[in-house]
Amino acid sequence: MILRIDMTSDIPIYQQIRNQIVFGVAKGDVKPGDSLPTVRQLANDIGVNPMTVNKAYALLREEGIIVIDRRHGAQISNRGMNGNAFDPDFDHRAELLVSEARMKGASKQEIKKHFSDLIDMVYE
């Protein structure tokens, strides 16, 4: 799995790492049981402080997306695959995105089409 990190983005690097791993799991690039690079290895690969990667891994662990143990390191969990996908936090984030698009002038039909295209992209 190749992570695409934008060092000039306003999105914190740890969040970009988290998001890229989530995208990888959703697209099937990484599967439950797959190992992730060590904190040090990933930090060296993308040129960031190990604490940044550690923060991303901690967030992923809290969300149930990865499990971490001393013998096997960080691995993709299968627990996160069976959770409630549409919890209140998901609804809040999706509602905010729709609101932002509407505020910028997008019509209901444009928003539906855009979301449909994004869904198709993830399920390719």
Automatic annotation (TrEMBL):
PROSITE patterns: HTH_GNTR. Pfam families: GntR (PF00392). Residues 11-79 form the HTH gntR-type domain. InterPro entries: Tscrpt_reg_HTH_GntR, WH-like_DNA-bd_sf, WH_DNA-bd_sf. It comes from the Bacteria. SMART domains: HTH_GNTR. Keywords: DNA-binding, Transcription, Transcription regulation. GO terms for molecular function: DNA binding; DNA-binding transcription factor activity. The keyword Transmembrane helix does not apply. PANTHER family: GNTR-FAMILY TRANSCRIPTIONAL REGULATOR, HTH-TYPE TRANSCRIPTIONAL REPRESSOR YTRA. This is GntR family transcriptional regulator. It comes from Formimonas warabiya.
